[in-house]
Specification:
Keywords: Signal. This protein is mostly beta strands. It is built from 1 helix and 15 strands, in the order αβββββββββββββββ. The radius of gyration is 18 Å and the shape is globular. The two termini are 35 Å apart. The structure holds 2-acetamido-2-deoxy-beta-D-glucopyranose (2 copies) and calcium ion (2 copies).
Length: 238
C-alpha cells in the first residue's frame, strides 16, 4: 500500500510538471529524492517540504544518495540538530543526482530547504539559531523590525535571490550592520539559483547572537558579495 501511494504521488508530481511545461517556474519545482542505496538505488522517498523526523517516512539514518532541486540542509538529529555541533551536511542541486558526502550517509534524521516556500530563486532570508544552519529559524521576504524568538540568538544565515539584505545589531534597523548578496550562482537550463551561506557570524564581521532586525536592500557600508554576480552552469552529469 505504501508503494502504491508513493507511485500515485510520483505520477501526480510528474504529470503536474509535464502539464505545466513551458510555464515559467514549472522547472524549478523544489524537491529532493533520497535513496537508501548508493547510485540512486533502493528504497526512496521524495521530500518537498520541511521534515523534522525522517522516521515518519521510514527513512531515518538510511539515505545514501539523492536527486533534486534546491538547497537542502541535512541533519544528524531530529528537529534540525538543535544542539549544534561542528558538522554540516547539505545537498545542493539544480537537477543532478549525487552520492551524498561519505560522512552524511546513513545518518540523516531531519531535513529542510533554505529559501522561499514559493519560487526557488525568490528574494528571501533564513536566520538560524545555531552555526551551520541548525536549530530554530526566523525567515521571511520582508523587513523585520525585530526577530521575535530569535532576538539576539542568530548564529548563521542564508540569503536567496538577487536582492541584498541588511542585518542590524539593534531593533528597528539601527546599530551596526552588514549587507549580504548571493555569492553562489548556478543555472541549469531555465533554472536559476542564487544564494549566500553565512555559516558563522564572524564571516559578516558581526558578533555571534547580535542580530536584532533585517531590512531588504543593501543599506550598510559593510557588504558581502555584490549584485549581479556571474552564474556558472552546473553540468547535469556531475
Ligand atoms: C556506483 O556507480 C559507480 C560508477 O558507475 C560504480 O563504480 C560503483 O561500483 C557503484 N556503486 C554501487 C554501490 O553500486
Ligand atoms: C520601533 O519603532 C516603532 C515605530 O517608530 C516604535 O513604535 C517602537 O517602539 C520601536 N521599537 C523599539 C524596541 O524601539
Ligand atoms: Ca541520525
Ligand atoms: Ca545562537
Amino acid at each position: 500500500m505504501k508503494f502504491i501511494e508513493l507511485w500515485c504521488f510520483l505520477a501526480f508530481i510528474t504529470s503536474s510538471i509535464l502539464n505545466e511545461k513551458g510555464v515559467a517556474g514549472a522547472g524549478d519545482f523544489r524537491y529532493v529524492t533520497g535513496y537508501a542505496g548508493l547510485n540512486y538505488t533502493g528504497d526512496y522517498y521524495q521530500f518537498t517540504d520541511y521534515t523534522p523526523d525522517l522516521s515518519v517516512v521510514q527513512m531515518d539514518n538510511t539515505i545514501e544518495s539523492g536527486c533534486g532541486i534546491g538547497l537542502w540542509l541535512l541533519y544528524d538529529a531530529v528537529n534540525y540538530d538543535p544542539l549544534a555541533d561542528e558538522s554540516e551536511c547539505t545537498f545542493r542541486s539544480i537537477g543532478e543526482c549525487r552520492n551524498w558526502d561519505f560522512q552524511c550517509r546513513n545518518m540523516i534524521s531531519s531535513l529542510r530547504y533554505a529559501g522561499s516556500p514559493y519560487g526557488l530563486n525568490d528574494n528571501y532570508y533564513n536566520l538560524y539559531e545555531g552555526t551551520l544552519f541548525k536549530g530554530r529559524e526566523f525567515r521571511g521576504n520582508t523587513d523585520a523590525a525585530d526577530l521575535g524568538d530569535l532576538d539576539m540568538a542568530v548564529s548563521s544565515l542564508i540569503v536567496t535571490g538577487q536582492s541584498g539584505w541588511t542585518f542590524y545589531t539593534d531593533v528597528n534597523f539601527t546599530g551596526f550592520s552588514a549587507c549580504v548578496y548571493a555569492d553562489e550562482h548556478y543555472t541549469n537550463g531555465d533554472i536559476v539559483h542564487d544564494y549566500a551561506r553565512v555559516q558563522y557570524m564572524s564571516q559578516l564581521g558581526l558578533p555571534d547572537n547580535s542580530i536584532r532586525s533585517v531590512a531588504r536592500g543593501c543599506l550598510s557600508e559593510r557588504v558581502l558579495g555584490h549584485p549581479g554576480g556571474e552564474r556558472s552552469g552546473q553540468d547535469a552529469s556531475d
